[in-house]
Amino acid sequence: MKRPSSDPNQRHAVSATPGLTTTEAPFVEEAKSKGELYIHQPYELYSEENHETWRRLYSRMLPRWRQFANSRFLEGIDALRLDPERVPKLEDVNRFLSPLTGFRAKAVSGYIPAFLFFDCLRNREFPTTITIRRSDKLDYLPEPDIFHDIAGHVPMHTDCAFADTLVRFGDCAHTAVEMAAEIRNEAEQLRVLTSIVKATARFFWFTVEFGLMRSGAGLKVYGSGLLSSYGEIGHSIESPDVQRYPIQLEWVINQAFEIHHYQPLLFIVDSFDHLFSLVDRLEKWMREGRLNNVAPGEPEVNETDLRSFLRAA
Question: Which domains does the chain have, with CATH numbers?
Answer without folding.
Answer: 20-312 (1.10.800.10)
